[in-house]
Amino acid sequence: MPASRLRRVAVLVLDGAKPLDVGIPAQVFTTRASMPYEVRVCGAAPGLVTGGDGLSYHVAHSLDALAWADIVFIPGYRAPDRDDPPQAVVDALTDAHDRGARLAAISTGAFALAATGLLDGRRATTHWHYTRALAAKHPLVRVDENVLFVDEGSVLTSAGAASGIDLCLHMLRGDLGVAASNHAARRLVAAPYRSGGQAQYVPRSVPEPLGERFAATREWALHRLGEPLTLEVLARHAAVSPRTFSRRFVEDTGCTPMQWVMRARIDVARELLERSQRSVEQIAADVGLGTGANLRLHFQRILGTTPTEYRRTFAQGE
User: Fold this and answer.
1) pLDDT for 254-297, tens place per residue?
2) Which helix or strand (DSSP H or E) is residue 72 part of?
């Protein structure tokens, strides 16, 4: 984990807040010795906030926490298409963004973020049940109903509660590196990485045995990244034709099989750069990219940086 300053996280609890949406960022970014984050749960005012699903929350902090925070999470809440948040909440979110904080909405929290105007002209998502309502209420937002989360830099949105975990892990990866994100995923017993482009749900029924076989193929491939992994090899393991495998894979994950393999190789390379002293050439061979030049090419294309710069930023013990 790279040496870094403490990052301050505010979780904004609005009336009707959904329990899982509140708990996910609070737990992922929990204040602990191994995590450079401090979390404060806040509301429009300190005190009792009536939540959804029969729960209420006693929050210790007011909107002043948004002026303090580097990251602000807006959990989903009930009936977001009916009423906007109080103007004081909208103003506090806008001020936090103007000051440089990242704003991240989970599920229907996207409606509160959209009310600020900060999503106008940008891609965003929300729970699939509310995507049309979000587009109707905020027509300047480019609503994408077929993704798990959208990262627009200073504003981020995610679909339902489970994809809130994906969004949080994605943010952890950007802040602290893949090793820290994978550690958090293991603690949560969650998938270490699902890309934001993965579909929220399969658009049509897929026989369960085929879905299980594809999951098994992905797991099989993750243990063989140093070997040649072509579309034909993957399809053969799944016992379907390459054409069927490719089509179903895209429907299930939002990316092609070869895009998925490349991203998996880069992820393993990232972790090796963080946690080992192996050379770039050795790592390239370990992850199936052959040469250091090939690793550098794909690293730059996918992450916008070089392996050397990445290691300098995220290597443990620095």
Assistant:
1) 789 999 999 899 989 988 998 889 999 999 999 999 999 999 99
2) strand 71-74
Q: What are phi and psi of 58, to 5 degrees?
A: -105, 105
Give the integer Cα–Cα distance in Å for 109 and 128: 13
pLDDT digits (tens, 9 = 90+) for 201-249: 433 333 334 455 678 898 899 899 999 999 999 999 999 999 999 988 8
Residue 159: Cβ within 10 Å count: 33
Give the DSSP H/E element, type plus range, for residue 49.
strand 47-50
Q: How far apart are CA 73 and CA 184, in angstroms?
A: 18
19 touches 25 (CB < 8 A)? no
Radius of gyration of the chain (CA): 21
Residue 285 neighbours by CB distance under 10 Å: 16
- CB proximity list for 210: less than 8 A, separation 6 or greater: 238, 240, 248
Q: Compute the half-sphere exposure of residue 210: CA atoms within 13 Å on the CB side of its CA.
A: 15
Beta bridge partners of 149: 158
Which tokens in the block code for residue 137?
Answer: 């209420």
SS3 8: strand
Residue type at position 65: A
